[in-house]
Structure formats: C-alpha cells, structure tokens
Amino acid sequence: MHKKNQFLLLKLARNTLEAAFSDEDPDTSACIHLTQLRGCFVTLHKQQQLRGCIGFPKPIMPLYEQVIAATKAAAFEDPRFDPVNVKELKDIIIEISILTRPELIKVTDFKEYLQKIEVGRDGLIIQGESSGLLLPQVATEYHMDAKAFLESLCEKAGLAKDAWKDLKNKIYKFHAEIFAEKE
Asked: Are residues 84 and 18 located together in one domain of the fold?
C-alpha cells in the first residue's frame, strides 16, 4: 500500500477515535477511494503496552469502513480492557495491519507446521471447536519460535496448548502490511 494511503488510514483511525467521544461520524472524504477488500486489524498501544486490538481477518466491507469498525471495536469492545476514555487519547498510538487472504496450511503430519510457518512474516488462524488469530508481529514482539507461536495461537482460541497437533483443527497463515503512528 502506498505511504500516502497508509497515512490516510491512520488519520481516519485517529479521527474515528476522536469523533467517538463527540458522537460524530469520522470524516471519510479523504479515504472514500480506499475500497479494496482486505482484512484488517487495528491495534492500540499506550506507553508501549497493548491497549486494544480487534479486526477482521476476512474482507467483509470496503477497507476504509473496516478501519473505522476495527478502530471503534479496539477502543471500546476489546474484552481484555476497559473502554478507552477521552483522557487517554493523547497517549494512544494507533497501528494498522492490512491482511492478505488467509490460506490453509496443508500438512500430513503436524511437525510440518514448524517448517511451513515463517515467524515474523506469517500471522496464524486456527479453526476447530473454537478459533483464534495472532498477527505476525506477536511472534516477533514476544520472541517466539514457530512452536511457541502455535501454542499461543491455541491458547488464544481457548484450546489446549497442543491443539495444533490435532489435524482436525485447521491452521491458516496470512501476511500483514503493518504501519503505525509515530510516538
């Protein structure tokens, strides 16, 4: 994605956060052309700590609309955190991850996953009795190898840590273009 469009999406996410506190809609006029269908996540950081992260792995609406929805959800609906309050706005740093379409990792033996996952480049989704997703940057931020990344993915989904070894559970990988506001 062109740097200008990254800037426009970050500005849209910032405007969405600010507008939410005055019950206004964000100004979409500069982004209305960003209609490609891509999955996206919005991650909020406060003092270099996670403050919220929600998104859509699959494209379900035009990109600019997904950024608005993901921003609101990350700020106000992430069950791990209290909703963002207006006093925090100045301390929030916004990061956006634009995703490629998830692709099933085909294996005949669970050990093959360890060779087919590129840590730091691949994000992962597991689908089984429940599902979970981890963005590619999670593995890097927490210094995980492929096995630890798979175990964390399973835990995020509420599954047993070794559920990735059960081939009935489907594991998908995707890449993300990640960009953020400067601190």
From this structure: yes
**How many other C-beta atoms lie within 10 A of the C-beta of residue 31?**
22
pLDDT in tens, 111-170: 999 999 999 999 999 999 999 999 999 999 999 999 999 999 999 999 999 999 999 999
Hey, what are 172's tokens?
């998908």
CATH number, domain with residue 87: 3.30.700.20
Backbone angles phi, psi at 104, to 5 degrees: -65, 135
Give me the pLDDT at residue 90, please: 94
pLDDT of residue 33: 93
Provide the whole-model pTM: 0.90
Torsion over CA: 106, 112, 118, 119 (sign): positive
> How confident is the model over 52-95, as pLDDT tens digits?
999 999 889 999 999 999 999 999 999 999 999 999 999 999 99
Q: Are residues 94 and 129 in the same domain?
A: no
Question: What number of helices (H) and strands (E) belong to the chain?
Answer: 5, 8
Tally the C-alpha atoms within 13 A of residue 53's C-alpha that lie toward its C-beta: 15
* Residue 23, CA distances (Å) to 6, 9, 15, 29, 96 in order: 25, 20, 12, 18, 23
Q: Can you give the residue range of the structural domain that contains 39? A: 3-99
